[in-house]
Here is the input.
Amino acid sequence: MDHSVKPAGATALRDTLRGTWVHHLFDKLRSVKRHVMRRSDGEAFLLDKYARLHGHPLDVTNPQRFTEKLFRRMIAVNRGEHPEFTPLADKYAVRDYVADKVGEEYLIKLLWHGEDPAAIPFDSLPTEYVIKSNHSCHQVIIVKGDTNRTDIQCRVSGWLKTNFYWSNREFQYYHIKPRVLIEEFLKNQDGGCPLDYRFWCFRGHPEVIQMGNHARDNIHSFFDTEWNLLDIYYREEALRPHLAKPRNFDDMKSLASRLSAPFDFVRVDLYNIDGKIYFGEFTFTPAGGGIKLRPESWDLRLGEKWR
Here is the structure.
């Protein structure tokens, strides 16, 4: 008998009970169990993910590679270590850290924030702006001109009901209270979305700069701190062009260094709009750990920097 197939009677019973107090009670108990078992489940999830991605078990006791240390960090955070990561992963709360560390002039202008999508003040917002959540990744809406307000409110309501922790077991997101942020729309002189400069920093020392573009998400170039194009990558399908060195690049490096100084590793994301530098976000566990650095020598090289 195939035990993976549920008996028709069980399926019929479940459908009959759907929407009743019994069904709601069952869902509540299942949710409670999930949260009670979160830590052990999270650790098992991460160990299994590493093994499937890299083809061998994680060396927790003596990690050497960057990706090994990345998963060891994720397990440590899942166990409750590094509670300071939570407010820094919160795209709203981190603004206080940035303002205190380097000054408010590096923050993107915040037009509105709140927890009720119905309260979004559409009539008082400019023609262009960006809507995003504070507790997740890839939850972004770029508004240019007229828009469907009801659709936006529905999408944002869905965001607020999610806990991003469950996607990749990144515990720094677990306790973030969901909030909606509306920011000024940053754009280049040609009106396009800006490039994202992602500084991989170790104790305040930028080592490599990963490039990205949120609008199309098809650029994946890496540069060293002298702006030489590197052969490192982890996304096969993305483009890796040689891009122009940004204006006041040394200022960007200095800013990334000051922001990352307290951390053994953190990715500091910055924007540069015609020489004006803005802070984007901190990333403590890039891509939820789901990366294989190529060539493999970079995995060891960056692992040596992470001490």
User: Anything to note?
Assistant: The longest strand covers residues 205-212. Residues 1-7 have pLDDT under 50 and may be disordered.
